[in-house]
Amino acid sequence: MSSADNLKPIGFKVSYWFAFGFSLVFLLYGGVKIILGFLDHNYTDLPKAIIFLLIGIVLVTLADAYKGLKPWSWYGQVVINGLIMLLAIIGYSHYENLILLVLAGTAMFFLFSSETKEYVLKGD
Fold this sequence. Notes:
124 residues, mainly alpha, 6 helices
Protein backbone atom coordinates (compact mmCIF):
# COMPACT_ATOMS: atom_id res chain seq x y z
CA MET A 1 0.00 0.00 0.00
CA SER A 2 1.48 3.33 -1.05
CA SER A 3 1.53 6.45 1.05
CA ALA A 4 -0.96 8.06 -1.35
CA ASP A 5 -3.51 5.36 -0.43
CA ASN A 6 -3.09 6.24 3.25
CA LEU A 7 -4.13 9.83 2.53
CA LYS A 8 -7.46 8.82 1.00
CA PRO A 9 -10.44 9.22 3.34
CA ILE A 10 -12.04 5.95 4.44
CA GLY A 11 -15.40 7.14 3.09
CA PHE A 12 -13.89 7.49 -0.36
CA LYS A 13 -12.41 3.99 -0.20
CA VAL A 14 -15.68 2.41 0.96
CA SER A 15 -17.81 4.19 -1.63
CA TYR A 16 -15.33 3.34 -4.40
CA TRP A 17 -15.21 -0.35 -3.56
CA PHE A 18 -19.01 -0.50 -3.36
CA ALA A 19 -19.27 1.13 -6.79
CA PHE A 20 -16.67 -1.21 -8.25
CA GLY A 21 -18.24 -4.31 -6.68
CA PHE A 22 -21.74 -3.36 -7.79
CA SER A 23 -20.60 -2.80 -11.37
CA LEU A 24 -18.65 -6.06 -11.34
CA VAL A 25 -21.87 -7.93 -10.53
CA PHE A 26 -23.49 -6.52 -13.67
CA LEU A 27 -20.46 -7.41 -15.77
CA LEU A 28 -20.30 -10.96 -14.47
CA TYR A 29 -24.03 -11.57 -14.79
CA GLY A 30 -24.15 -10.28 -18.35
CA GLY A 31 -21.00 -12.09 -19.43
CA VAL A 32 -21.99 -15.43 -17.90
CA LYS A 33 -25.53 -15.23 -19.35
CA ILE A 34 -24.09 -14.56 -22.81
CA ILE A 35 -21.64 -17.46 -22.59
CA LEU A 36 -24.27 -19.85 -21.23
CA GLY A 37 -26.74 -18.73 -23.88
CA PHE A 38 -24.31 -19.64 -26.64
CA LEU A 39 -23.35 -22.93 -25.00
CA ASP A 40 -27.00 -23.94 -24.53
CA HIS A 41 -28.06 -22.60 -27.95
CA ASN A 42 -30.69 -20.57 -26.11
CA TYR A 43 -30.67 -17.05 -27.52
CA THR A 44 -33.92 -15.77 -26.00
CA ASP A 45 -32.25 -14.01 -23.05
CA LEU A 46 -29.34 -12.68 -25.11
CA PRO A 47 -30.60 -9.07 -25.49
CA LYS A 48 -31.16 -8.79 -21.72
CA ALA A 49 -27.68 -10.20 -21.04
CA ILE A 50 -26.10 -7.74 -23.47
CA ILE A 51 -27.90 -4.86 -21.74
CA PHE A 52 -26.58 -6.05 -18.35
CA LEU A 53 -23.08 -6.26 -19.82
CA LEU A 54 -23.31 -2.73 -21.25
CA ILE A 55 -24.63 -1.34 -17.96
CA GLY A 56 -21.72 -3.06 -16.19
CA ILE A 57 -19.22 -1.45 -18.57
CA VAL A 58 -20.74 1.99 -17.97
CA LEU A 59 -20.71 1.46 -14.18
CA VAL A 60 -17.07 0.26 -14.20
CA THR A 61 -16.13 3.32 -16.24
CA LEU A 62 -17.94 5.53 -13.73
CA ALA A 63 -16.22 3.80 -10.80
CA ASP A 64 -12.83 4.20 -12.49
CA ALA A 65 -13.49 7.90 -13.07
CA TYR A 66 -14.47 8.20 -9.40
CA LYS A 67 -11.16 6.64 -8.42
CA GLY A 68 -9.49 9.16 -10.73
CA LEU A 69 -11.19 11.95 -8.73
CA LYS A 70 -13.28 13.32 -11.58
CA PRO A 71 -15.90 15.62 -10.00
CA TRP A 72 -18.67 14.50 -12.42
CA SER A 73 -18.17 10.91 -11.29
CA TRP A 74 -19.14 11.84 -7.72
CA TYR A 75 -22.46 13.13 -9.03
CA GLY A 76 -22.84 9.96 -11.07
CA GLN A 77 -22.25 7.82 -7.99
CA VAL A 78 -24.90 9.79 -6.10
CA VAL A 79 -27.41 9.24 -8.93
CA ILE A 80 -26.62 5.51 -9.22
CA ASN A 81 -26.91 4.94 -5.46
CA GLY A 82 -30.12 6.98 -5.39
CA LEU A 83 -31.58 4.77 -8.13
CA ILE A 84 -30.49 1.64 -6.27
CA MET A 85 -32.19 2.89 -3.12
CA LEU A 86 -35.35 3.88 -4.99
CA LEU A 87 -35.64 0.51 -6.73
CA ALA A 88 -34.91 -1.30 -3.46
CA ILE A 89 -37.69 0.63 -1.71
CA ILE A 90 -40.13 -0.21 -4.52
CA GLY A 91 -39.35 -3.93 -4.19
CA TYR A 92 -38.99 -3.92 -0.39
CA SER A 93 -40.89 -7.19 0.04
CA HIS A 94 -37.79 -9.21 -0.86
CA TYR A 95 -34.99 -9.34 1.68
CA GLU A 96 -32.36 -8.99 -1.08
CA ASN A 97 -33.70 -5.53 -1.81
CA LEU A 98 -33.41 -4.59 1.85
CA ILE A 99 -29.76 -5.64 1.79
CA LEU A 100 -29.21 -3.51 -1.33
CA LEU A 101 -30.99 -0.61 0.38
CA VAL A 102 -28.67 -0.81 3.39
CA LEU A 103 -25.55 -1.12 1.22
CA ALA A 104 -26.52 1.77 -1.07
CA GLY A 105 -27.52 3.87 1.93
CA THR A 106 -24.14 3.24 3.53
CA ALA A 107 -22.37 4.16 0.28
CA MET A 108 -24.51 7.30 0.07
CA PHE A 109 -23.58 8.19 3.65
CA PHE A 110 -19.89 7.91 2.77
CA LEU A 111 -20.37 9.83 -0.49
CA PHE A 112 -21.92 12.73 1.40
CA SER A 113 -19.37 12.72 4.21
CA SER A 114 -17.48 16.00 4.33
CA GLU A 115 -14.10 14.27 3.94
CA THR A 116 -15.13 12.47 0.76
CA LYS A 117 -16.83 15.50 -0.79
CA GLU A 118 -13.82 17.65 -0.01
CA TYR A 119 -11.42 15.03 -1.40
CA VAL A 120 -13.28 14.48 -4.68
CA LEU A 121 -14.84 17.89 -5.27
CA LYS A 122 -11.76 19.97 -4.44
CA GLY A 123 -12.52 22.92 -6.67
CA ASP A 124 -16.14 22.24 -7.48
